[in-house]
Amino acid sequence: MPNLPTYEDELDTRRHLVRRIRDRCRDYAELNRVVEGQEHSDRMIYHAIGDILDDFNAMAPRIGTFLAANFPNHQILIDGALSILLESSALLYSRNDLAYSHQGTQVQLRQAGDYLNIAQMFRQRYENKAKEWKVTQNMELAVGNSGSFYSAFILTYRPLWYVNSLSEYQSPL
Q1: Are 81 and 22 in contact (CB under 8 A)?
Q2: For the chain, what is the total number of helices (H) and then of strands (E)?
Q3: For 64-91, how does the pLDDT look when each residue is reduced to its tens digit (9 = 90+)?
Q4: Which residues in the chain belong to E strands, given as ranges?
Q5: By the 8 A CB rule, do 24 and 82 touch?
């Protein structure tokens, strides 16, 4: 069960995560050539962090409730938040898809597909890392130094399960 952070710790961590997410996607006014200003407001990033925390906490196996300040791996959280932000941008760009032609000059603003592809990449990374972490943590809780019957059973009979080259049992003798 994770330790509960203080309210101040949670706010500080979320502010830090907003800066890291903005750094990761390089969302600064001086770097944006097409979009005026920042593409994602701090409010949008805060919402993405909250959404991914909700998603992670609801994901099986459920092994506790995490906030940003006690989240086990901020890289997982950042990947998930980026996927939500990019999905949101893809929705906006698909609504505002524009193909314009005037006197032989053609302009096409079709960024939705690119954003959606990148969002799917971040979503896949988030889900893989999150599930791997949760399964590992769940196994450690089950088999760890808890002294449970299950952990004693696995530690006692593990040599019988050990399979070498997928076909032969290794004898403990």
Answers
A1: no
A2: 5, 4
A3: 899 999 999 999 999 999 999 999 888 8
A4: 98-102, 105-109, 163-164, 168-169
A5: yes
